[in-house]
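Deviation from plan, reported transparently: glutamic acid complex.
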Amino acid sequence: MTVRTRFAPSPTGYMHIGGMRTAFFAWLFARHMHGKFILRIDDTDEARNMSEALGPILQAFRWLGLDWDEGPEVGGDYGPYYQSQRGDLYKAAAEKLIESGQAYHDFSTPAEIAADRAEADKAKRPYINIRRSLDLSAAERAQYLAEGRPWVLRFLVPRGETLALDDLIRGHVEWDTSLLPDPVIVRANGGPLYNFATVVDDAQLKITHVIRAEEHLSNTPIQVLLHRALGNVMPTFAHVPYVAAPGSKEKLSKRKIAEYRKNPKFKMLFERADEVFPKLGLEATPERSPVTVEYYEKIGYLPAGVLNALGRLGWSLDEKTEIMSLAEMIQNFTLERVVKAPAGFDPDKLFSFQSHWMKELPLEQKIDGCIPYLVAAKLIAEPIAPESRQFISQVITAFGDRLKLFSDIIDTEYFFRDEFPIDEKMFQKRVCKEGIPALLREFAQRLAVIDSFTLESLETALQAFAAENGVGQGDLIHALRLSTTGTPVGPGVYECLVLLGREKSLQRIEAALQRAANA
Ligand code: GLU
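Because the crystal trials were delayed, the predicted structure below was used instead.
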């Protein structure tokens, strides 16, 4: 048997981190089993622009490098892969159920249903629909239909049965079918409802393992019964627990963004986006917030960092392994090790995975990753000349492990333009301090004449100068750094000076001295 798993997103215009984790587990399982992973688009009740609604979802898969064997763009033997284009299949399946007496037209009016519900409430028992239309004769039914009476098609649940299922994650689950109302499977306009469409599709797509969010566990008994009624091969089910918001037990949700902005574990991510996205010409929208995959792509995470974090959301190889490559996850993934409890999303952990994978990344790939950010922030322009690439390479090397995200590179804008932000508070403290401007001026004169302008010569010159003047090297280093880069953080000061070159360094020191004089 070839394993076939699927992910069936409704096109919503964004890819939720929790949804991506579920999709990733289904993908990992397929890859581990040398099976197929299928993308099916559940677009039955979507009246939205498909490319806007589906685009970010497909992009999330592409960016993470999670390919699909069948689905949009790639096609496949069981297509079309959009539910909106599979109407004939639903129609045929509905007819089959009607013919075998397992589905019926229900002509109950909204008033009748409301009364049924009120009665159930009064008697304090769960509402189960009244099967009043079941008693209609064939002739009556035909007449009602001819009259154009409103109807829905309901599946006739076989009541009085204990339905058992072994879920690969949840374990053994049982349902009493007497408690299940007959679900509507087709609306009067012919539109299929979720449970029905899913069952028809999962069967026709020959899905062997339905791996999906646990919120669908409650839909599973109806789906199992529908599969049985249609004579389908029963898939195996695995319901993946939800992803909880950082430091909480509640499900991570796009609707709670205002709250997350104040969540100490999430706050930094929002703030960084507020700072960085505008510089890249992007808006920090809810669809591009830390609950979506797009946020991590746009702010410059590596797929390897995000995948490592997603893989560890409720799944582990053993007690201690944290860092895992995609290949290692494919090799080791099993559903048995998926934890039943909700998995807490931890931005700090994600960041530590990211830091690890960024450190591992070869320099050339770092350059390729940083260039789009420098271009978007208008710090460089395309096409990139070889000298320019070389300079970027030196900046990245000097920046070293401080580069955690590709967008961090725009913090080094002082290397790329002469107008750069100055940290006023630190400038006051480091440059305007008593005695410092005079020292800086004198040291600048020395910088103007030293033979070579290298890391070694600069260090030697500074040490000698500090000793001669009886001042701490630190004072001079801080003042130089603030003068030439405007910030107290970044690459080592000698690296900064070498990258800027003698002329620019001296100009900036001069400008800083003027600024200090006017302060
Ligand atoms: N379109 C459904 C959803 O997004 C799919 C559920 C399923 O996997 O069966 O929740």
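The chain has a mean pLDDT of 96. We consider this an acceptable substitute for the interim report.
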